[in-house]
Amino acid sequence: MRRSQAERSAETRTRILAAVIDSIADVGLQRSTAAEIACRAGVTWGAVQHHVGDKE
After folding, report:
1. What is the DSSP letter of 28?
2. What's the CATH number where 47 sits?
3. Rounded to 5, what percent of the chain is helix, strand, coil?
């Protein structure tokens, strides 16, 4: 069965937030860039920006 857009979006957001936490724990806040987080989450930089915005 195909997952809904809302389910896929929620899963992506969860992966991104987990990547944020891992990145901050590993390299610190200053070095946790959107590109670093995207790589860890397996998504594009645009997906990170869409789901969580910028560092602020």
Report:
1. -
2. 1.10.10
3. 70, 0, 30
Low-confidence ranges of the chain (pLDDT < 70): 55-56
What is the structure's pLDDT at 55? 65
Its domain, for residue 44, covers 5-52
Q: Spell out the residues 6+ positions from residue 16 whose beta carbon is closer than 8 angstroms to its own.
A: 37, 41, 43, 47, 48, 51, 52
Residue 55, SS3 per DSSP? coil
Could you list the beta-strand ranges (E) of 15-56: none
- Total domains in the chain come to 1
